[in-house]
Amino acid sequence: MSTTHHTTWQLGDRTVNRLGYGAMQLAGPGVFGPPKDPEAARAVLRAAVEGGVDHIDTSDFYGPHITNRLIREALHPYPANLSIVTKIGARRDAGGNWLPAFSKEELTAAVHDNLRNLGLDSLDVVNLRAMFDVHGPAEGSLEAPLAVLAGLREQGLVRHIGLSNVTAAQVQEARRMVPIACVQNQYNLVHRGDDALIDALAAEGIAYVPFFPLGGFSPLQSDTLSAVAARLDTTPMAVAIAWLLQRSPNILVIPGTSSVTHLRQNLAAAALVLPADAVAELDRIAAMS
């Protein structure tokens, strides 16, 4: 792990700042329904772009539909340099449960829903989220859904294809079929199962986008992380983001928040360079978990 880091990386055919924004938290509790304060959500989106964010991660199953509509209301017409990355492959039922949506009809409808709700003619990047197991990556062929997505790309509705919640074998299968712009999986100080995959993707110039940098729905509880943050006079979230940025140059980080104050703290983490002794301490967290 380097003590310095590149500030940009390739995402499809664009060069983006490595610190982006994840819009998941803009929906209501459990990523379901509207937020309590829609105008505050739109303010966070505007502040993100004003703060230099040029890629936003979203999905039409956040809400559902809520997050994409907020993005359109806040930012449309979009800045020319803004990449919006969305996901398909899942749906929500009336109770907010996450269910697979892998049929040709469901995937096609999902792309059109994203286009309509975001106000776009073509989606910059669409990640196919594997749903063989709702809770994490599980083996299973992606050939059929990827063929659907490749067809939508040929129609011009999708510019680049990515993957989410996938195994290394699924990445290899997908790359034999279509160019892959990015891989999005859970990865952080504790969940480091993708170490080898990250390095392999970096060698190929492919972005890796970790979600849940602080554990997501089950937040990381780490005395070591808290102690390092206190010593550096910053927040645990900033340290977790900085660690990811230093882990590998192809990592794009998309921390989410519904607070402008927290957003600005997260954006400041892009300038935080962790000293080698702090990195060594943080690396031991995974070994102890």
Can you give a write-up of this model?
The protein has 289 residues and is α/β, with parallel strands linked by helices. The protein has one domain (8-288): NADP-dependent oxidoreductase domain (TIM Barrel). Helices cover 39% and strands 18% of the residues. It contains 10 helices and 11 strands. The strands form 3 sheets. It has a 7-stranded parallel β-sheet. A two-stranded antiparallel ribbon has the order 1-2. A two-stranded antiparallel sheet has the order 6-7. The two termini are 20 Å apart. GO terms for molecular function: oxidoreductase activity. Keywords: Oxidoreductase. Residues 18-286 form the NADP-dependent oxidoreductase domain.
Write the layout of secondary structure elements.
Blueprint: E1 8-11, E2 14-17, E3 21-22, H1 38-50, E4 55-57, H2 66-75, E5 83-88, E6 90-92, E7 98-100, H3 104-118, E8 123-129, H4 143-154, E9 158-164, H5 168-177, E10 180-186, H6 195-204, E11 207-211, H7 223-231, H8 236-247, H9 260-268, H10 276-288
Parallel strand pairs: 3-4, 4-5, 5-8, 8-9, 9-10, 10-11
Antiparallel strand pairs: 1-2, 6-7
Helix pairs in contact: 1-2, 1-9, 3-4, 7-8
GO molecular function: oxidoreductase activity
GO cellular component, one term: cytoplasm
Protein name: Aldo/keto reductase family oxidoreductase
